[in-house]
Amino acid sequence: MYQFFSQKKALSTLQMLILLLIAGITGAILSYLWTEGYYVDKGFNIPEDTTVITILDAAFPLENSTYFNVTVLNPSFSIGATNITNIGVATSADNFKTIHLIPGSSAEPTLPRPLLRGESRTFRCHFDWGSFAGETVRVFAFLADGSGATFPYKTGKVQLQILDVELNTTISIKRINFTVGNSAESLIPLNISEIMFDTIAIPTENITTKTGLSPFPQTLQPGHNETFVCHLDLLHLDAFDSTHNITARTVEGYSAQFPVAIPPKVQLNISNVIFAQPETGSFKLTILNLLTSPHSATINHASIESENETFRNIELTPVSGDSNLNPGENRTFTANWNWSNFIGAELQITGYTTQGFLTDGFLYEVDPTFGFPEAVFTYELHALSVEFNASGSYDTYGDIVNWTWDFGDGVAGVGEVASHIYNQSGEYTVTLNVTDNDGLSAETFLIIKVYNTPPVASFTVSNDAVFTLEQVFFNASQSIDPDGDIVAFIWDFNDGDVGEGEVANHTFTEDGTYNVTLTVEDDLGTTTNTSKTITVLNRSPVASFTESTLTPLVNENVTFNATQSYDLDGTIIQYLWNFGDGTNSTEAMATHNYSTNGTFIVILYVTDDDNSTTSTNKTVLVTLPSRKILKLITQSEEISIRQNRILENLNLKIFTSLHENPQSKKIKALISN
Predict the structure, then answer these.
(1) What is the pLDDT of residue 93?
(2) Is the pLDDT of residue 259 over 90?
(3) How many Cβ atoms sit within 10 Å of the Cβ of residue 546?
(4) What is the DSSP string of 193-257?
(5) Cβ atoms 80, 45 nearer than 8 A
(6) Cα 460 from chain centroid (whole Å)
(7) CA-CA distance, 278 to 493, in Å (whole number)?
(8) What is the pLDDT, as a whole number, of residue 628?
(9) What's 94's DSSP letter?
């Protein structure tokens, strides 16, 4: 019995070993078949005698767009171990033509990395793929030798957007508003973590939201947006007259960028400073907004810096008018600051605007004058005509009683306001001299450029190809004079006629090509012209005729009359008839008969003095006499024949009787009567 059980136990062990061997072989076969199935499914043939890798999976986590994972397998049918050298990503944006290689140091584990036969490994690749969210990407794995692998992956849709940027330098150069949104198509909420101006991160304390929420992190659900108010000094950043990028970043690694075009900065100069005793509690300074500035600026305050001290927020009050300076305009302000302790000192004076602009620093040594007036003027150009205004001139301790002008072309003028017309374009130095009631004078000058821009002649035409006698409308309303007004519009229609006025109409009586010219004249007598070609086409003559009948009998005369034909823009010089039976005529009024019955088309051709021909036609039906008519004619002829026979018999009897009767003479006389 023991021997039996002992043999049975041995048999079971042998069976177990056999089963394990079968299981191992079966597993290897299944593994091979699984790998083979992967390649077949991808459309590849199973490679032989080479090293081929497979990408089993890739994962792009929406919550962190700074990395992705990829799992690479070295199949068991490879000839041996391999070395993964690179991993890359290509997007559908350029049809997968460009592969972005992941630096070896940016992969975990780092690359290159050996991979044994039958071994798989997952790599974490640090790569910012947020801009590709929502696209299909392809992940590539490359070998030192052998065949690499590719794996398509559809990333989830996530899109951060900067919807709008508000920057108005006429209000402030220290504030930019912009609206950031999470697209409604995004699959996850996004948390705003940083705002950048170009490469500079804007400090968190300089950012607020319009809703009053803490700026960071700011959670945006899909389809929602938030407006941020950023406080930064564009003047300090030297960001004017160029384009810069606003960038929003999220905790999840996504970003959005928006280009902002910043206009040139306002350029301000302090053109004059007056410290005048005994008014030591204030001084005067004149600020000019240069003509090259993009817009106006509002003067707000000033700062004064001496060798040892700095005085800020000194109030500035305009002597006349308001504090706003348009480009090319200057104004004098009173600065309320006591300068009595700074006589002889050198001061750096700077003016500021409410928008954040400031003047160039004005270095001034305090050397007070006493009661001198200040000459200030502005001008307005109108081509060669200029209006000068010295109302901004002032006298601290008196009144200005005289204004004298030197216009720079040898002509002088007087008065607080003066007008002058220059004879030609050019650059002129205009000097203003003012005198106060104490006989003290001051002088200032400006260099001005005057020029007359010629007017621009332009017009439209209702139709540039017309027939004779057709009215054509001309409109010169789009003509302009950049620096004045157009005072005259002269039209030359090129056919001997002329016209005037902004709008004109004309009728051409002869065909041909006409070069219509418009000449415009501005208020300074400068003229400009332009031309357009009008093609005038000949009107064809009108062919028309009447007829005595359209249903004549054979050999019956028919009269055709073409005298009612006419030519609106000329004369008819030729008539030609085609009677439809092979005959014709050139008479205006023609007579014709048809020798046979039938239907004939009569065509009239008329030609005018421009050799243009027109035709018209009518159908003539020629018939034979009817049978009834022929019968009546036959009967009438028979009656006539019988009557003639009766008369002949009667005459014969009478003749015979006359010869036999003595009274024959009387009878002959009677017959004769």
Answers:
(1) 82
(2) yes
(3) 12
(4) EEEEETTEEPPGGGEEETT----SSEEE-TT-EEEEEEE--HHHHT--SEEEEEEEEETTS-EEE
(5) no
(6) 21
(7) 75
(8) 47
(9) G
d(CA 23, CA 31): 12
Q: Encode pLDDT of 313-329 as tens digits.
A: 999 999 989 999 999 99
* pLDDT given for residue 541 in this prediction: 95
What's the pLDDT tens digit per position in 333-343?
A: 999 999 989 98
Which residue stretches of 589-626 are H helix? none
CA 666, CA 538: separation in Å to the nearest integer?
A: 85
The answer to whether the CB of 562 falls within 8 A of the CB of 543 is yes
- Record the tokens describing residue 197, joined without a space: 């101006």
Mean pLDDT, rounded, for 658-665: 44
Is 70 exceeded by the pLDDT of residue 7?
no
* DSSP string across 329-398: -EEEEEE----GGGTT-EEEEEEEETTS-BPPPEEEE---EES-EE---EEEEETTEEEEE-TT-EETTS
Q: Position of tokens 């397998």?
A: 73
CA distances from 592 to 194, 545, 553, 560, 584 (A): 104, 14, 12, 8, 9
Q: What is the pLDDT of residue 38?
A: 41
C-alpha span between 178 and 159 (Å, rounded): 17
Q: Please, are residues 88 and 96 in contact by the beta-carbon 8 Å criterion?
A: no
**How many Å apart are CA 536 and CA 623, to the nearest integer?**
48
Residue 17: band (very low, low, confident or very high) from pLDDT cuts 50, 70, 90: very low
Q: Tokens 């973590």 appear where?
A: 193
Omega within 30 of 0 (cis) for the link into 112: yes
* Joined tokens for residue 133: 């969210």
Residue 140's DSSP bridge partners are 88, 150
